[in-house]
Amino acid sequence: MSSVVTGEAVVLELRPAGFAARGLSAMIDILAQLALAILLLLLIGNVFGGALDTVLTTALLLVVVLLLLVVLPVTVETLTRGKSLGRLVMGLRIVRDDGGAVRFRQAFIRALVAVLEIYLLAGSLAFLVSLFNERSKRLGDLLAGTYAMRERTLVPARAIVTVPPALQQWSRTADIGRLPDPLARRMSQFLAQAPRLTPGARQALSLDLATEAERYVFPGPPAATPPEEFLRAVIASRRDRDHAALTRRREHTDAMTARMHRLPYP
């Protein structure tokens, strides 16, 4: 995970792509370029036949190579703001070090250096350079101030917190006040991460949070209630009550709006 602080002091959490993902996207791009090169050469052969001498043939080959290795990647990367066919398949995007979209200058530098480190040296230089930085940058990225970012990530779905059966009767009558946002956030994070904690840390954290949350609850939970179950009951009850209050407020607003539209106009 990589953090970027914007000009408005907002911290963005970005996921740099690993070398394997970048290598696969580069292979897809290279195969697409080879296929396009074959099509262009066949087209040139059909159009001109044997009318070209050696000098013109060499010039056309240089133009095709320049078009495929520099002009096409720069154009695609600039217009799509860091995309290519391989990156689209792998869910990657090239961005600047500050998290912004790449421009023509960055795309041009990356394409020029790629001719050396990827095509002429068969990717060996890019591989060696990427080993010595945390964002798996190749030489072109270092010179252009860019890196590859993952756009598609698998986010595991969180389990819905519910009131434990033993506390359902208590939760219906308990006065659960509005929790401070930092406390509610810490409680939610603890309940999401609790299965991954060691038993000792899990017990200690749940007890600390329950002690802090108990100040906003009256009466307290029944005796011998496990702290973690108490936290689940508080979070679930507070969520359900807030949702019910918002639903009633929306229904009241909709009813008032409908009533206002039914009033006769002067």
Notes on the structure:
With 266 residues, this protein is mostly helical. The chain folds into 2 domains: 2-150, no CATH class; 165-262, no CATH class. Helices cover 61% and strands 8% of the residues. The chain contains 10 helices and 6 strands. The strands form 3 sheets. Strands 1-2 form a two-stranded antiparallel sheet. It has a two-stranded antiparallel ribbon with strand order 3-4. Strands 5-6 form a two-stranded antiparallel ribbon. It is elongated. Residues 1-11 have low confidence and may be disordered.
- Helix fraction bin: 55-70%
Number of domain modules: 2
Query: What structural class do the secondary elements suggest?
Result: mainly alpha
Distance between the termini: 62 Å
Query: How many helices in DSSP terms?
Result: 10
What percentage of the residues does DSSP assign to strands (E)? 5-15%
Principal-axis shape equals elongated
| Strand segment count | 6
Please write out the topology.
Elements: E1 2-5, E2 11-14, H1 19-48, H2 54-79, H3 85-90, E3 92-96, H4 104-120, H5 124-130, H6 139-144, E4 146-150, H7 168-173, E5 175-176, H8 181-193, H9 199-213, E6 217-218, H10 227-262
Helix pairs in contact: 1-2, 2-4, 8-9, 8-10, 9-10
TL;DR?
The protein folds into two domains: 2-150, no CATH class; 165-262, no CATH class. 61% of the residues lie in helices and 8% in strands.
